[in-house]
Amino acid sequence: xxxxxxxxxxxxxxxxxxxxxxxxxxxxxxxxxxxxxxxxxxxxxxxxxxxxxxxxxxxxxxxxxxxxxxxxxxxxxxxxxxxxxxxxxxxxxxxxxxxxxxxxxxxxxxxxxxxxxxxxxxxxxxxxxxxxxxxxxxxxxxxxxxxxxxxxxxxxxxxxxxxxxxxxxxxxxxxxxxxxxxxxxxxxxxxxxxxxxxxxxxxxxxxxxxxxxxxxxxxxxxxxxxxxxxxxxxxxxxxxxxxxxxxxxxxxxxxxxxxxxxxxxxxxxxxxxxxxxxxxxxxxxxxxxxxxxxxxxxxxxxxxxxxxxxxxxxxxxxxxxxxxxxxx
Length: 328
Description:
Elements: E1 3-8, H1 17-32, E2 37-42, H2 49-57, E3 60-64, E4 93-97, H3 108-117, E5 124-126, H4 129-137, E6 143-145, H5 156-159, E7 169-173, H6 181-194, E8 198-200, H7 205-214, E9 220-221, H8 226-233, E10 238-242, H9 245-253, E11 258-262, H10 265-274, E12 278-280, H11 284-292, H12 303-311, H13 314-327
Parallel strand pairs: 1-2, 1-3, 3-4, 4-5, 5-6, 7-8, 7-10, 8-9, 10-11, 11-12
Helix pairs in contact: 1-9
């Protein structure tokens, strides 16, 4: 049995989008290592002695994808590691990880940190080409563009079952930490004009307070859990339009028509690479046209990159399977 440690980005955060990401990460890791024994440790908190013990005992370590890489480690690093932790972190492999905002090229300190921290031979999976190029500039040549693991199962067969026409109701989100009150107030008002009912999902704690501060439009609040969001999205009577990227991807996973409002580099870069349906914040004419205009979803998922990244573990898995057969 192979022991695997996963830096889990859904711990020590109130962002439910990280749970959506980690569900996909763990689904694919379990497919890759069907007999694997997984241990999770938080990426958003500094490792404890037990975390280091798990890393030392594991044959592989992975980092669940989110925008945790940055160009200036000493100024900002979402991945909570001390400089003294770098050589004890298990030489992790990135899985669908992205870059924090648009930044200049990595400085020499950050490049040295990544060269010390990350696995030196196994390829790292990057969420978008922008992040791919940034990590290469940090002196990490073993990188593959794979897209986000949340999108790996959005093949043509799945997408063909998504409705193309307007639903009677809308499921929407806001981003409370990236406020634009005037634009977002108008956004909610216009949704109220276009749809019978509005369902709002607070993906982070502050999102609901933000909605109440900017709008008096009647809405139904969806329980702040991924399960409740998925249940509402699979009812078949809603479109998704919102500022939360991974809620929009969850909508596509659930067979729901989805339009993501771009608020930072994540949706912008993923849309550029994969043709994910997005719209610039405040472009209400485009939103109105999308609502009324039937259009199938066609994505450009980097299937070859995903297969290439997964294949690095194929020999190990085949050996493990043969050992299990002999043991039985």
